[in-house]
Amino acid sequence: MDTELKGQIAIITGASSGIGTGIAKSMAEAGATVIINHSSDKSTEAADAILKEITDAGGAGMVIKCDVSKEDEVIKMFADVVAAYGTVDILVNNAGLQQDAKFDEMTLAQWQKVIDVNLTGQFLCAREAIREFLRRGPRPEVSAATGKIICMSSVHELIPWAGHVNYASSKGAIKMLMQSLAQEYGDRQIRVNSICPGAIQTPINRPAWDTPQALNSLMQLIPYNRIGQPKDIGNLAVFLASDKSDYITGASIFIDGGMTVFESFADGG
Ligand code: BGC
C-alpha cells in the first residue's frame, strides 16, 4: 500500500459508481480513510460492496447516504464524519449527472436537477469542507495544506456541448466556483482544483462506448485512441490530494486522451 494520503480523511461524493468509485479505491490504496457517499436507497448495495472491497484490501472507511443537493443532509454528512474521525482533510466533489435533451425541448425540471446536483451540490459540500478546515486549522502531521478540495468538472467546462446545455452550463460554472474558492482561501492554505475528464468508461456515457460503432466514432475525438478508465482519474485525484501537488491551486487539469486538442482540426480548418 502506498502511503501518500496516510492518516487523512477523504469524502468522495457520488462514490457508488463510475469515477467516484475509482477515486475512492485509489485514495484508499494511498492510505486515506474514505467516506463513500451515495445518494439514495437504490445505491446502498453498490456503496456497501465498494466499501467491502476496500476494507478487504486493508483500507478503511464508511458509507454515508446523502443527497448532495440537500443542505440539511450535507451538513449532517460532514457532522457525522467529524464525529467518527475527528475531521475532514480532503473533499472530492464528484457527484454529478446528465439529463440530456434538445434545448428547445428541455424541461425546467431537467435543467434544475442537473444544476442542483452538479453545481449546488458542489457549493454545499465545499462550504461545509471549508468551514471544517477553518475550524480545525493546519494539520502538518498529515499534509502541508490545511485542506484540499477537488471539484469534478469535465472537458465540457471548455468544449460546448449541444444537446447537453444544462450539463455544460453546470461544468462551466464549476470552473468559477473552483477558481474563486482558490482565490478566497489560498491564504489559509486551502487548495482547490478541478479535474476535467474526457470520455471515461462509466455508466454516465454508456451509449458512447457500448457498441463497436459508437466506440469507433468516439475514437475520432480522442487522439490517444483509447477510452479513459476510472483508475486514470483516481491516480490524478491522489496526486491532487497529496503534497506532491502542494503548489497547485486554482487549476483545471484536463485528463482526456487529448480530446481538448480538437483532433477534428488535424486535417481541416
Ligand atoms: C460526460 C460524458 C462524455 C465526456 C466527453 C463527460 O463530462 O459526462 O458523458 O462522454 O464528458 O464528452
Task: Describe this entry's structure for a reader.
The protein is an alpha/beta fold. Helix 4 (108-136) links the parallel strand 4 and strand 5. The model has no long low-confidence stretch (mean pLDDT 98). The chain is globular and about 55 Å long. It has helices spanning 18-29, 44-56, 71-85, 108-136, 165-185, 212-219, 230-241, and strands at 9-12, 33-38, 60-65, 90-93, 147-152, 190-197, 252-255. It starts with 8 loop residues before the first strand and ends in a 14-residue tail after the last strand. The chain has a seven-stranded parallel β-sheet, with helices on both faces. The chain contains seven helices and seven strands. It has one domain: Rossmann fold, CATH 3.40.50.720. The longest helix is centred in the middle third of the chain and has 29 residues, at 108-136. Bound molecules: beta-D-glucopyranose. Beta-D-glucopyranose (BGC) binds next to loops. Beta-D-glucopyranose (BGC) binds at residues 98, 154-156, 198-199, 204-205, 208.
Work out the helicity level: 40-55%
**What characteristic shape results from the CA principal axes?**
globular
Small molecules in complex? beta-D-glucopyranose
Q: What integer value in Å does the Rg equal? A: 18 Å
CATH class division: Alpha Beta
Class by alpha and beta content: alpha/beta
Order of helix and strand elements from N to C terminus: EHEHEHEHEHEHHE
Distance between the termini: 48 Å
Overall tally of domains: 1
Strand order of the largest sheet: 3-2-1-4-5-6-7
